[in-house]
């Protein structure tokens, strides 16, 4: 089982994500990022690839898609905040 990020691990785990466009969600222990693509098909294709990894790792993002934009929010509901799984999936999404 995964654990909520500790005070000691938050910086090293989250800082690289912040440098890559992720941001804290106000009022929640969660991070968010908006991805923008050329069109709906490209956005949906990216979501499909991300969904395969999310399912493989058993960790599913909160997300919404409107035409060429995908807004992703990552948090681990089971631990009540951010975990290493959130960072792992965020890094994968950035690389897709």
Describe this structure in words.
The protein is built from three helices and four strands. Strands 1-2-4-3 form a four-stranded antiparallel beta sheet, covered by helices on one side. It is of the alpha+beta class and 96 residues long. 45% of the residues lie in helices and 20% in strands. Helix 2 (40-57) runs antiparallel to helix 3 (84-95).
The share of residues in helices is: 40-55%
Largest sheet: 4 strands, antiparallel
Q: Provide a count of the helices.
A: 3
What's the β-strand tally?
4
C-alpha geometry: globular
Average residue pLDDT:
97
- Detail the poorly predicted runs: none
β content, as a range?
15-25%
Structural class: alpha+beta
Please give the alpha-carbon distance between the first and last residues. 26 Å
Summarize the structure.
The chain contains 3 helices and 4 strands, in the order H-E-E-H-E-E-H. The protein is an alpha+beta fold.
């Amino acid at each position: 089982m995964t654990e909520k990020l500790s005070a000691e691990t938050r910086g090293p785990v989250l800082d690289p994500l912040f440098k890559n466009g992720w941001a804290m969600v106000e009022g929640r222990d969660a991070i968010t990022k908006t991805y923008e693509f050329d069109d709906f098909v490209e956005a949906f294709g990216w979501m499909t690839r991300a969904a395969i990894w999310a399912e493989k790792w058993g960790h599913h993002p909160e997300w919404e898609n409107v035409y060429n934009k995908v807004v992703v929010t990552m948090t681990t509901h089971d631990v009540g905040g951010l975990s290493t799984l959130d960072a792992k999936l965020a890094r994968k999404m950035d690389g897709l």
